[in-house]
Specification:
Blueprint (H helix, E strand, L loop, with lengths): L20 E4 L2 H12 L4 E3 L6 E5 L3 H11 L8 E3 L3 H5 L6 H10 L4 E6 L8 H4 L4 E5 L4 H10 L3 E2 L14 H8 L5 E4 L10 E6 L2 E6 L5 H8 L4 E2 L24 E3 L10 E4 L13 E4 L6 H17 L4 E4 L8 H12 L3
Helix pairs in contact: 1-6
The structure holds threonylcarbamoyladenylate and magnesium ion.
Magnesium ion binds next to loops.
């Protein structure tokens, strides 16, 4: 069984170099992507949150390829993606609260960390040896179609080099990973634009490990109680949660948060219609949402950070962003972008 796994899959040019295929978001592209994944290849694909760098989660050699391509510290466990709840229930054990959240938010931008099912095929490298698994049924139909074709859980972190800004378009993926992965499916821009919210459902406690595409308030509403914060105390030794690595999502430029004014030459990242003093001296300007809509701001966040960075400004001044709803996740990503490095 599974003897297809030992086949080398990377497309190669005449010199034995890996060449990244650009696949279209249609039946032909999906079928090629699924073949590559089943053979142990690395394929970046769109979800509603960000582009993921996928590998067969049951194949440790394939999963090792993710860490190599991203140059990611290998202690980070990965999210496994499934086409539907039934497939997720074969990999993890869902208590009543986890089941309620799955029913309310899947398919969608929510990841549930649950005890690993006895019959789970997800390899130890994908979970970093933990006895829990992080599972997600993505909201984008194209992603679920791909997962159905693959027929195995697909491990996928964001498709960027470690520490860089998450990709929300296929060209962002190529900028970081061209000729380090087998293929990317071009599905256009992602509509949520932030990674999934991660909830740990272990030991009867519901904890918010990473704010993301589903606001905390919506989850608390379904649970009928408050979420606890951070990793479970028993996880102290374990490879902790989400990008807990301080500096993450880092542009090349310095990042200045809660900016009340723009200094000459700085890039300006705005929100709403207000123009801060000094805006006329800005080296480049982007607005997350003219109308002050946090959903639109989340969708634009990573592309605008990249856009300002590509303008080669020395620093990016970011105006204050409200903290409610998706603002919690936006502010979390911005704090990481600003962390010392
Ligand atoms: O939106 C998303 O979630 C994207 C798309 C591609 O689905 N994926 C993503 O994956 O952001 P990644 O690998 O960048 O983030 C996974 C996070 C990591 O920070 C990891 O620490 C946490 O999930 N994680 C995974 N398994 C865990 C576990 N068993 N316990 C605690 N945290 C876990
Ligand atoms: Mg990431």
């Amino acid at each position: 069984m599974n003897d297809d796994r030992s086949t080398p899959v990377a497309s190669q040019d005449g010199h034995g170099q890996r060449v990244t295929e650009l696949l279209t978001a249609d039946a032909g592209g999906l079928s090629r992507a699924a073949d590559l994944l089943r053979l142990g290849g690395l394929v970046a694909f769109p979800t509603e949150t960000v582009y993921g760098l996928g590998a067969d989660a049951t194949n440790p050699r394939a999963v090792a390829g993710i860490y190599a391509a991203k140059e990611r510290p290998s202690f980070n466990p990965l999210i496994s993606h499934l086409p539907d709840i039934a497939a997720a229930e074969r990999e993890g054990v869902f208590g009543p609260d986890a089941a309620r959240l799955a029913a309310a938010f899947w398919p969608g931008p929510l990841t549930l960390v649950v005890p690993r099912a006895e019959m789970s095929r997800i390899c130890d490298l994908a979970t970093a040896g933990l006895d829990s698994v992080a599972l997600r049924v993505p909201g984008l139909p194209l992603a679920r179609d791909l997962l159905t074709l693959v027929g195995r859980p697909v491990a996928a972190p964001s498709a960027n080099r470690s520490g860089r800004i998450s990709p929300t378009r296929a060209d962002h993926v190529l900028a970081d990973l061209i000729d380090r992965i087998d293929a990317v499916i071009d599905g256009g821009g992602t509509n949520v634009g932030l990674e999934s919210t991660i909830i740990s459902c272990l030991d009867g406690e519901m904890r918010l490990l990473r704010p993301g595409g589903v606001p905390r308030e919506a989850i608390e509403e379904v649970l009928g109680r408050k979420l606890l914060d951070g990793a479970a105390p028993t996880d102290e030794e374990a490879p902790l949660a989400p990008g807990m690595l301080e500096s993450h999502y880092a542009p090349r430029a310095m990042v200045r948060l809660d900016a009340e004014e723009v200094r000459p030459g700085e890039g300006a990242l705005l929100f709403g219609r207000k123009r801060p003093p000094g805006i006329e001296t800005a080296g480049a300007i982007r607005n997350l949402s003219e109308s002050g809509d946090l959903v639109e701001a989340a969708a634009n966040l990573f592309a605008h950070l990249r856009g300002l960075d590509d303008a080669r400004v020395p620093a990016i001044a970011i105006v204050p962003i409200p903290a409610h709803g998706l603002g919690e996740a936006i502010n979390d990503r911005l704090r990481r972008a600003a962390a010392p490095r």
